[in-house]
Amino acid sequence: MRISNVDGRLTTFVDGKPVDVAEASGGRFGPDPQDGFERWEQLVDWGRSIGARGAGAVDADRLDAPVPRPRQVFGIGLNYVAHAMEGPWGVPDVPAVFTKYPTCIVGAKHIVQIPAPTTDWEVELVVAIGRRAHGVVAADAWSYVAGLTIGQDISERTLQRAGNVPQFGLGKSYPGFGPTGPWLVTVDEFTNPDDLSLSCALNGETMQDWNTDDMIFDVPALIEFLSASKTLLPGTVILTGTPHGVGFARKPPRYLKAGEEVVVKLEGVGELRNPVIAEA
Ligand code: ZN
């Protein structure tokens, strides 16, 4: 089953056509996509009862974030070995956790504005949590996941590195620095949710091209680690880290430029396209 946010309304797909959940359910579920996570299991059961499966055609300029107002947004740094070796920090012993502030989350229709010339790209697998999780063991972790989507952890590297300790949360949370979408795909639609190719291209030139099976801490390990000390609320999102190929590590460094289009792809989900412009 896929969940989308079409013009701000919770939408799923049946036989390739978008279905407005509030209308089709006779009001059993409301129109707000964020509210769907509070009753996720009932929503998925209802979706299956109407044959919701696969995607459909929706104009990208109608698509907002599938999790539009997450109460928590966790980011994971340095979660692929080759990427960890690109920067000054090295390979972590435990997940390197930071926060992207929720106001940075946007959808497929969003145009990314560059606030500074050192703004970088990071394609990531994004996990949405479907039920309250605390003290979850890895073996049970996938059952707490509502679904997967594509994300960009856009990062302004100068602010990220300002001061004596890295300012990950600040540098990665400018307005619009968290494009996600185009939809959320439930775990049962993947042959193996731990083994998904993902890539990032700028104007057709591939910058990152890797696979999530190479994560240092996979999705179950991340949920176990995070939920050991935190409560993950329904509708929480976790950006699980980016593979190598980001701009700051290139020689010479390369950053996002106005006029480019960032295209990120994730196996089993599709692609997310966001044009880039200079900040007004
Ligand atoms: Zn990242």
> Could you say which structural class the secondary elements and strand pairing correspond to?
alpha+beta
Give a count of the beta strands, DSSP E runs of length 2 or more: 18
Helical element count?
Answer: 6
Radius of gyration, CA atoms, in whole angstroms = 18 Å
Q: Give, in order, the helices and strands.
A: EEEHHEEHEEEEEEEHHEEEHEEE
> DSSP strand (E) fraction?
25-35%
Largest sheet: 11 strands, mixed
Which hetero ligands occur in this complex? zinc ion
- Poorly predicted ranges (pLDDT <50, ≥5 residues)? none
Note the main attributes of this structure:
280 residues; alpha+beta; 11-stranded mixed beta sheet; 5-stranded mixed beta sheet; binds zinc ion
SSE blueprint and pairings:
Layout: E1 2-6, E2 9-14, E3 17-20, H1 21-24, H2 40-49, E4 63-64, E5 73-77, H3 81-84, E6 96-99, E7 105-106, E8 112-114, E9 119-120, E10 123-129, E11 145-152, E12 155-156, H4 157-160, H5 168-171, E13 178-185, E14 197-202, E15 205-211, H6 219-229, E16 237-239, E17 261-266, E18 270-278
Parallel strand pairs: 5-16, 7-13, 8-18
Antiparallel strand pairs: 1-2, 1-4, 1-13, 2-3, 5-6, 9-12, 10-11, 10-16, 11-13, 14-15, 14-17, 17-18
Zinc ion is lined by residues 75, 122, 124, 153, 239, 241-242.
Tell me what the structure shows.
The structure is a single chain. With 280 residues, the chain is α+β, with helices and mostly antiparallel strands. Helix content is 13%, strand content 32%. The chain has six helices and 18 strands. Strands 1, 2, 3, 4, 5, 6, 7, 10, 11, 13 and 16 form an eleven-stranded mixed beta sheet that branches. Strands 8-18-17-14-15 form a five-stranded mixed beta sheet, with no helix packed on it. Strands 9-12 form a two-stranded antiparallel sheet. The protein is globular. The relative contact order is 0.21.
